[in-house]
Specification:
Blueprint: E1 4-9, H1 14-25, E2 30-37, E3 45-48, E4 51-54, E5 56-57, E6 68-71, H2 75-87, E7 91-94, H3 110-113, E8 123-125, H4 129-144, E9 147-156, H5 163-177, H6 211-223, E10 230-237, E11 244-252, H7 258-267, E12 271-273, H8 285-288, E13 294-301, E14 308-315, H9 319-335
Parallel strand pairs: 1-2, 1-6, 2-5, 6-7, 7-8, 9-10, 12-13
Antiparallel strand pairs: 3-4, 9-11, 11-14, 13-14
């Protein structure tokens, strides 16, 4: 089997560390690994497949002889360095928002649109974590009847804001539980996240929606190649360490019997149906934490809409919502001999 030289930009972050774990778990054919990060993190040590590597500083000339470059260092870093990686001959799979809506950059969820992975111009975009989780869940329904409208409410874990989000929640909880004196520090989130929910993620835009909410709108339309899907979203930060939860209200063009919906969800790739209300079985964030699959439950008809369906969805946003999806894209490239 052919092996590949793989670079990871942002290797010391939450998603970067998850890249390492998943590459190991899935036995991705890595010939040489190049861990990259900011100047501040250069010199740190990481372990991959039992071997210790020194993290190198990310530079414009870092990508000589690299086949695949996995980026998760933020949009500004991707905009500065991804083009250099692509010009060096690497295929960049970028986890930031930098290129997602560019017309000539594929935006890929392998369970939904792996056929769109090529052609590309050296850069392939990984969608937003909440968009990925939602699209995996709605694809089996879309395949039965086109979806006209989605109302999405997300409940997003603090690790979606990176490792610093996890630390801030830990420190706030510890301070409150131990009744330590002094102010609660809010550096990552705008207000206290411990024992609280925050009804916005990212900056507000002129239309009153946040940037995170509009990502779900535009990215979903691009992934399904259907600009007429109407999407409205409210994204909420919750005091959970890992895994995003989503309440989705879906309106289809044609009426789909609910048993047909359940059957389709139960057979779909990358999904686990956990839906037994008699025994109070439904997925929670803890069920999906550390798992590759997206979990679905609370499947029911919307009593307020003729062709409406309600589902509850959870997924580990560091895995399927970020690192796993990117590596699955790389696996598609390898499988189709596109590298």
């Amino acid at each position: 089997m052919r092996e590949f030289n793989v670079a990871i930009a942002g290797v010391t972050g939450a998603v970067g560390k998850t890249f390492l774990s998943i590459l190991e778990e899935r036995k991705f054919p890595v010939k040489n690994l190049l861990p990259l990060a900011s100047k501040r993190s250069a010199g740190k040590k990481i372990v991959f497949n039992g071997e210790e590597f020194e993290v190198k500083e990310l530079k414009k000339d870092s990508f000589k002889n690299i086949d695949i470059a996995l980026f998760s260092a933020g949009a500004s870093v991707s905009k500065e360095f991804a083009l250099y990686a692509a010009q060096s001959g690497a295929v960049v799979i970028d986890n930031s928002s930098a290129f997602r809506l560019e017309e000539d950059v594929p935006l890929i969820v392998p369970e939904v649109n792996s056929d769109k992975v090529f052609p590309h111009k050296g850069i392939i975009a990984n969608p937003n974590c909440s968009t990925i989780i939602m699209c995996v869940a709605i694809k089996p329904i879309y395949d039965i009847s086109r979806i006209k409208r989605i109302v999405a409410s997300t409940y997003q874990a603090v690790s979606g804001a990176g490792a610093k989000g996890i630390v801030e929640l830990e420190e706030q909880v510890r301070k409150i539980i131990c009744k330590k004196s002094g102010d609660i520090k809010c550096e990552v989130f705008p207000v206290q996240i411990a024992f609280n929910v925050i009804p916005h993620i990212d900056v507000f835009e002129a239309n009153g929606y946040t940037r995170e909410e509009m990502k779900m709108v535009y990215e979903t339309q691009k992934i399904f190649d259907d600009p007429d899907i109407k999407v409205t979203a409210t994204t909420v930060r919750v005091p959970v360490f890992t895994s995003h939860s989503e309440a989705l209200n879906i309106e289809t063009e044609s009426k789909i019997p609910i048993h047909v919906v359940r059957d389709a969800l139960s057979k779909a790739k990358g999904l686990v149906l956990k839906d037994d209300i008699e025994n109070r079985l439904y997925p929670t964030a803890l069920d999906s934490s550390g798992k590759d699959e997206v979990f679905v439950g609370r499947v029911r008809e919307d009593i307020s809409c003729e062709n409406g369906i309600n589902i509850w969805v959870v997924g580990d946003q560091l895995r399927k919502g970020a690192a796993l999806n990117a590596i699955q894209i790389a696996e598609v490239l390898v499988e189709k001999n596109l590298i």
